[in-house]
Amino acid sequence: MIRTVKLDIRKGEYLSDALRRHGKENIPTRVILNKVLPGLGATYCEIMSPRSSIIIEPNVPVIVGKMEKHKNLLGIYRGVKTDEVARHIRKYPGCCKIMVTPESFWKVKQAMEDEGVDMYKDFFMLFDECEKIIQDNDFRETIEAPLDDFFLFRQMAFVSATPILPRDPRFEEHGFTELRIEPAYPYRKPLRLVTTNNVVEALAEVLPECKSKVCIFVNSIDTIESLYKDMAELQNSATFCSTQGIAKLRHVKDRSMHDRIEELKRYNFFTSRFFSAVDIDVRCKPDIILLSDLYGAEQSVIDPRTEAIQIAGRFRNGFRSLTHITSIKPLLEAMNASEVDEWLESARLAMTEIREKSKKDKRRGYRETYMEAAVNLTYQQYVYQNGKDNYFRQDNFREQERVKSLYRSADSLFNAYRDVPFFEVTHEDKQYPLTDNDRLARHRQTSRKQRRIFLLEQFERIAYLRFSPDEKDQDRYSRYLARILSSEYDCMFHECYLRKGADYIRSVDFKDSEIKRAVEEAGTTVFRKKQQLKEIVEKQFRVGEVYVGSDMSVILTAAYRKVGLPVNKRVNTTVLKEYFELKEERTKSIRYIRIVKYK
Question: 118: buried, middle or exposed (CB in 10 Å: 19+, 13-18, 0-12)?
Answer without folding.
Answer: exposed
